[in-house]
Amino acid sequence: MDNNVLNDFYELDRMDLLTRVFGRVCVPESILWNETPDDIRTALRQIDYETVSLYTEEGYGLMYQLLTEWTGLSEYDAELIAIAGQDMIVCTSNEKGSSMHVKVMASNIREL
């Protein structure tokens, strides 16, 4: 899950909805520690979530591919999409254009 989604639910004071909307809430470690403010990390303690990270050659390869072919993606966005591809989980973001990147890359995941 992208930091922007966390921010939106936090601003609504409805972090509890994350686990109601999504069956599994995963936040990349890098986003959690480098992009997420302390108050949101504290609020995340209210819900059942897990931290995730890249750990496979395929995941790192997908991140490299994203960073070289989709130059508009930040490193964090590329990592988020690569983790989703690596673990075959749905990636959520509210950034304009991100859903297009996820859909395009999802069609290529089977090729890894």
For the biggest β-sheet, the strand order reads 1-2
Distance between the termini: 22 Å
Rounded to an integer in angstroms, the radius of gyration calculated over CA atoms is 14 Å
In total, the number of strands is: 2
Q: How many alpha or pi helices?
A: 7
Report the sheet with the most strands, covering strand number, pairing sense and barrel closure: 2 strands, parallel
- Helix-strand pattern, N to C? HHEHHEHHH
Helix proportion of residues, in percent? 55-70%
Strand composition percent: 5-15%
Mean pLDDT: 84
List the uncertain runs: 98-112
Name the overall outline.
globular
Task: Give me the secondary-structure category.
Answer: mainly alpha
Structure notes:
Strands 1-2 form a two-stranded parallel sheet. It is mainly α. The C terminus is likely disordered. The protein is built from seven helices and two strands, in the order ααβααβααα. Helices cover 58% and strands 5% of the residues.
At a glance:
The chain is mainly alpha-helical.
